[in-house]
Each structure stands twice: as C-alpha cells, then as structure tokens.
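Data card: per-record layout.
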Amino acid sequence: MTEVLAAPGPVGAPPDRDVLLEVRSLRTYFKVLDGIVPAVDDISFSLKRGQTLGIVGESGSGKSVTALTIMRLLDIPPASIGDGSEVWFDGREILSMPLDEMRKIRGNDAAMIFQEPLTSLNPVFTIGDQIAEQVELHLKIKKRAAMDRAIESLQLVGIPSPERRVKQYPHEMSGGMRQRVMIAMALSCEPKLLIADEPTTALDVTIQAQILELLKSIQQRTGSALLLITHDLGVVAEMVDNVIVMYTGQIVEQGTVHEVLLEPRDPYTMGLLESIPSVEKRGGRLSAIKGVVPSPFNLPPACRFEPRCPYAWDRCRTVPPDLNRVGSGGHLARCHLHTSEGAGRLPDALQRHRTALNLGRTLPTGGH
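The structure for this 368-residue chain is written out next.
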C-alpha cells in the first residue's frame, strides 16, 4: 500500500512523475460580512496515478471547498487563495495558470462529479446534448461523433437503452439515473483524475452500492485516479487506498485506510468511529462527540478540537498541535498525544478508544 505523501515538495518544483495531483500548503478564504472565513487552512497531500484517496469529515470541515479550489470553480472574490498555495496536476501548477488554460484541463483531464445531480444538470437541455457539448469542446470532434460518444458513455455506466436516454431531460430520470449521467459526463473525455464529491449522499442504500461499484469498476478499467469526498466511513472502508480526515479546514489525520480506520491516532477520528452504530451497541446509548463544530469566526486558539476532546489538557489550550508522524509509515495525526509531553497520556487514550469501539466489528475493511 502506497502511503499518502505527508509533506509538500520544494516550492515551485514539480512533484515526481508518478504523482498525478499534489496539493501544497493550500489555504482558501471567504470574505463575508462578519469577517474572513478560513475554509481550508494549510493542507498538503498527494495522489498517485491510478490510486484512490478519500477525504472525510463533518459538514463544514472544508472537504468540498478543497475540491472546488483544485478545480478552480470558486468565485474570486468573495473567495481568495492564500499566498504560497500550490496545486500541481500532471506536472503543471494550475492555480497560477491562465483561466483559459485551466478550462482546457477541467472536464478533459480532470473531471468532477457533484453532490446533487438535479441542480448540476441543465433542465432545459437533453442529457445527450449536455454530454456531447463537453465532448465536442474538449476533443474537437463533430456533433454527430460527440453524440455517439455520449451514448457510449451512458452505456459504460450501465444506463439501459442509451440511444433513447440521450433524448431525455434530467427531470425524466430517477435520482440514481441522474447520478449515473453525471458520472458518464465526467468520464466522457477519459480524465486522468476524477473527483467525486459525496456522489451517493442523495441516493438510497441500494443505489449507493451500485454507484460505488460502478466507480470502482470504471477506475479499474480506465486507470484514472479517484479523489472521493464523503462523510461516510463505510464508503471509505470499501473504496479507498488512503484517507485524509479533516476538521475545521485542517487535516487532523492521514494514512492508509487500515491505519486510519483500524488504528486511529487522532481523538477526532476516534470519536467518528466510536459514534457509528453497531450490533454490539443495540439497546444501549450511542456514542457521540460532545459539543458542536466551532464557529469559523471564533476558533479555539490552539487545538481546534480541544473543547470537544475527552483527552485534552492544558497544553491543548495554549499550543497549536502539528501533524505528528505516528508509526513507521506515512500515518500522521494532529494531536499533542504524539509528542514527548503527551506520551504518558497516549496508552490510556488508546485503551479507552478500543473499549468503546469493539475494534474490527464496526466497519468493513473492503479487502484493502
């Protein structure tokens, strides 16, 4: 299993050839009436060609803003990107390139599946016209050939009678069908990178399983890299190679799916896992992370999870924690428990977590 790259490369230097996407010290802010919101605060990660990376966290943690920043789909202003931020895609730094050049990449080499297909599809154009328009623009082919490509894309994602479906409008399809259309549109130009932002949130459980299986089979067939954004740890367990956990715009833990889900080292990740219902907890009280996510205008001065953390002590209220390496691989956790000052508290925290979790029974491991 290849680890997530923890540290960014040298400023201004392209990453290794096998790295398709590398995000370095990314900061994204929004200027609103009440002040400046740090939606993404100094995050770094990388994704190799053909791999799958999951980003997980509560609503408001910065997952979707990270994806939108990478694709340069944010309005600037009110959004702004901090100095020193870099996003390298296929050997090119894309935050600084002209927007016309970025448009050639977006939808062609890098594509995004949005969370709600009904609001992402244009209601006054047919499905076929919307897919064909993108193909015609990026691949520079005639309209008839682009429509044939649209039909092939719909067939690839398992939509029956694609020749008839290309003539339908979004409202004539079910939610599962519309999500398949979004995937077909994203795959129509055979992108190197596919970003899926909560692709199954609006779907029922049966359709969710079908869509996830479809994404896996397509990735195996095309060799594209997948950046999967979700709040569902079960989906993460089944789908990804590596995991990033975000909280209030920061990365709090990252590593392989085994490391993060079976051996979590950040109290926030521990709390997420402990709050998942299981058979062993039937009839008892469900675990929950106390408190609420802090307001972005009033973040705690040091550790942002400190007011909700059962293991916090004085240092957590005065010194911001760094991402500390835990173990011998690329497993990182943003917690003072992994410093010399917190070493004595770590065994008790891990034991309390294992007792609450019933390790190995809550989540599937997905064969990773």
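Known properties of this structure: Residues 205-222 form the longest helix (18 residues). The chain has a mean pLDDT of 81.

See the next section for split statistics.
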